[in-house]
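Changelog-adjacent note: as of this version, every example in the card shows the full chain rather than a window. The one below runs 465 residues end to end.
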Amino acid sequence: MSGLLGTLDMGQRALQAQMKGLELTGHNLANVNNPNYSRQRIEVSSTYQVDAGMDSRGTGVGVVTIEQIRDQILDSQIRSEKSVTGFLESRMTGLDYIQTGMGSVLNPFGQEGAGGLDTQLENLVASMHDVSSDPSSRTSRHMFLDAADTLATEMRNMDQQIQQLEDRWDDELNLRVEETNLILDKVASLNQSIQKAERGGANTANDLRDQRVNTLESLSELIPIDVNSDANGRLQINVNGVPVIDGETVVSRLSAEAQQEGAPAIFWQPDGQAFAPSEGRLGGIQDVRNTTLLEMRDQINAIAEDLIQTMNQSHFQGFALDDSTGRDLFIGQNASDIQLNQDLKDHPEWLQVSSRQGETGNNETISNMINEMQASRAGLGERTYVEAHADLVAQLGQSIRSSRSDLEDQQAMEALMINQRESISGVSLDEEMTQLVKYQRAFEASARLVSIVDDMLSTIVAMGR
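Full-length structure tokens:
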């Protein structure tokens, strides 16, 4: 169409294009405080051309698509950083739980009177010296047996605290596995909605794409993911080479299965492939559960096992006030079941202090036990009991400091990337106001064109009357 009617049609298309720009600018402004929103721009192009002999005329402008301002490479980097952050946050939370739950029995800060294991070890040695000074004193024997009983109780408490922490992290693991599966379902549902909205080649489901980006980042906080698109734009997600999502379908889900010993194991179903993530919150949970807590339990058990064996070996060979012999000081195998021999609690006179019969003032057996308590133990890496405990506390403190420092550095890195993305994809009020004025002026000009053509058409119609 040419002439005035063609120009009128051109003005109409121009009005529609500028109106679309105004609407989109308003949409951007409405989402200025939405951290998960990426600003959008209309892409316009000249419409078809009319050939009229030697004279070719344009027909105006039209909206081609609505473009989302987003850097997909930066999105991928942020997902990777979120996986690392998720791992460190989960690990830091676990260490904080350990510090809180084990603080009273470990006494990690060496507080006087805090009653940690180090205090109980020192109290036991001090009570041994009292017995050594007066082997026949019932008061000294009572104090020694009370100290030994308190030490055994403290070790059992440590084992119980570790068990409670393990149970807590097992529950946390199960919850995070369920959360991961729910997010996988949500991603697949968003893929379906996007495919439906963009069917026919229209690439306009930008708000849904924003939701999907945010959901993928939530997923990456839990597990490390690799996101790709095929030639048809279908989203595919792999985790350590395992296909998880193919377009609108979740092809693999996580399951946590209890084991006879240790933490629950994670598997991909239906294939049953084991999954041991090194990043994400699930990776942090497994690291705390299978490394930190396991090492702590092993070290505490090593102290308890050596203590039981060494003290029993010396005490078994000694003699009581009534010359009886052959009794163990402790019963049990490790920190989980160590106890003071009930016979000795009921009969302090049966404490075997002397090295020979008939010598109630003999203190050689108890002196030997003192030496053993203060000697370096081969089973503890040539450390004393107190030194082994101190190393355990130091390792925990170092892990907490190191993890906190790593987390702070990682959070700063993630924040830097998010700020970089915000500078690219975020809504700028100044820029949007400029766009608003531009579209307003263009709309006014287009409306003026329509008005002028309308006047001209009216004049022509009037000429024919």
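Structural remarks: The first strand starts at residue 40 and ends at 46.
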